[in-house]
Amino acid sequence: AQSVTQLDSQVPVFEEAPVELRCNYSSSVSVYLFWYVQYPNQGLQLLLKYLSGSTLVESINGFEAEFNKSQTSFHLRKPSVHISDTAEYFCAVSDGGSNYKLTFGKGTLLTVNP
Amino acid sequence: NAGVMQNPRHLVRRRGQEARLRCSPMKGHSHVYWYRQLPEEGLKFMVYLQKENIIDESGMPKERFSAEFPKEGPSILRIQQVVRGDSAAYFCASSLRRYSDYGYTFGSGTRLTVV
């Protein structure tokens, strides 16, 4: 069975500071990895995903995540955050190419303070 | 090009009543998934449906919960005789294909409160 661990439930940072949200997973098969963002009272939006190929993936709003197979990690990073990045971030995993189910972590609340 | 539409956004039910949650997938999407988010938890898979078929309901509680996706109309998640533990956010997602490689499009959810 798969599982996803997001090590930090809350991460407060100041505006323009760098941030890393950690995600570790366990799976016995190859996986697809995702980060979703949830703004208050909204649904989840796909931020970025790793399917195969380059282990570094980027989003259009400056976030990036690196797939590390040996450490079974998919940490999310941004070099300089904005107030508008305040949201809950969820890491998710699915069996690569053969499964439709997403297994989610418990989420990390990123709060960006002025 | 509307996204995944869920209604109602908020639903309050007394214990013992029925709750009906609706989900209209994105245009052209025939795969629908329901997830539940309990307080302080990540989303948990409940059920996967295609038009008129339940493909996988392994995440559904054995009693009181049912789901359908008729040929016409939205997908419905039905909870009979609700209890306080059913209070949660219920999210629906849809996809063009069965597999997750595109990442699903989620609706804004229905927040069910049982009083």
Structural features, described:
The complex is a heterodimer of chains A (114) and B (115). Chain A has 114 residues and is mainly β. Helix content of chain A is 0%, strand content 53%. Chain A has strands spanning 3-5, 10-14, 19-21, 24-26, 31-38, 44-50, 56-58, 64-68, 73-78, 87-95, 103-104, 108-113. In chain A, strands 2, 5, 6, 10, 11 and 12 form a 6-stranded mixed sheet that branches. A 4-stranded antiparallel sheet of chain A has the order 3-9-8-7, with no helix packed on it. Chain A has a two-stranded antiparallel sheet with strand order 1-4. In chain A, a hairpin with a 5-residue loop joins strand 5 (31-38) and strand 6. The model of chain A has no long low-confidence stretch (mean pLDDT 90). Chain B is mainly beta and 115 residues long. Chain B has no helices and 11 strands. Chain B has strands spanning 5-7, 10-13, 19-24, 31-37, 43-50, 53-56, 65-68, 75-79, 88-95, 105-106, 110-114. In chain B, the strands form 2 sheets. In chain B, strands 2, 4, 5, 6, 9, 10 and 11 form a 7-stranded mixed sheet that branches. In chain B, strands 1-3-8-7 form a 4-stranded antiparallel sheet, with no helix packed on it. The termini of chain B are far apart. The model of chain B has no long low-confidence stretch (mean pLDDT 92). At the A-B interface, strand 5, strand 6, strand 10 and strand 11 of A face strand 4, strand 5 and strand 10 of B.
